[in-house]
Amino acid sequence: MLTVHHLGRSQSERIVWLCEELGLDYALKRYERDPATRLAPPEYKALHPIGTAPLITDGDLVLGESGAIIEYIIAKYGGGRLARQSAHPEFADYVYWLHYANGSLQALLHRMLVARRLEPAPGHRVHLDMQARLGRTLDFVNRRLGEADYLAGSELTAADIMIVFSLTTMRTFTSCDLKAYPHILAYLRRIGAREAYQRAMRRGDPGMTPVLD
Question: What are phi and psi of 103, to 5 degrees?
């Protein structure tokens, strides 16, 4: 059976949400972070050589990486739903934004998280550069969401499932004010109204209020 191994407040919320959107029969196993280190517990790290979230098991298969898991589930269990095939007019946008989420936005947020923990001096060049990069990145996403309701076009796809964590839960680790980005905020309100998203957040992180504003 398909099992989602969900580490609390992590990128694995994407996989729980995907399964809920697809209406799949899946098992959910939750793991809590170590209260001191905020890292995954030993039993989670033991599942895979890399030991990071997200992870799924499916029979003897153990699979990591958000994008790989999403493509696997959509192909094997979703009948291609929430994806765009090559003949679809939204195919290029879908592929771009599916990979942009972790390739650009989430990677930048991780670098900012590490930099802040190093406590650079005010006005440090690296910190200022990262802030400028984040501003350009959010401007870019905001412009796209001013053109379309969802990243690939008029309907939710896996590209949205990939990026929403970076715009919501990740902000509990790396603070980021979105008031200057009205299209992103409107987008998050649309996401927050989805029943499947609400179910996923209740199941995966029942003690957390989604960060949608």
Answer: -70, -30
What is the rounded distance in angstroms from the CA atom of residue 21 to the CA atom of residue 158?
10
The one-letter amino acid code at 30 reads R
Residue 5, beta-bridge partner list: 29, 55
Question: Rounded CA gap, 138 and 178, in Å?
Answer: 8
Please write the tens of the pLDDT for every residue from 2-15: 999 999 999 999 99
Quote the tokens at residue 194. Answer: 């989805």
Dihedral angle computed from the Cα positions of residues 124, 110, 158 and 76, in that order, rounded to the nearest 10 degrees:
160
Pairing assessment for the beta strands 2-7 and 27-31 based on DSSP bridges? parallel
DSSP string, 120-175: PPTT-HHHHHHHHHHHHHHHHHHHHHHH-SSSSSSS--HHHHHHHHHHTGGGGTS-
Q: At residue 1, what is the residue type?
A: M
Name 56's bridge partners: 4, 63
Q: Identify the residue whose tokens are 């007019």.
A: 89
Q: Name the one residue in this structure whose structure tokens are 């401007």.
A: 139
Q: What is the pLDDT of residues 61-79, one digit of tens each?
A: 999 999 999 999 999 999 9
User: Is the peptide bond preceding residue 42 cis, with omega within 30 degrees of 0?
Assistant: no
Peptide bond just before 54 cis, omega within 30 deg: yes
Structure tokens at 79: 């009948």
Residue 12, both tokens: 């694995």
Single-letter residue type at 74: I
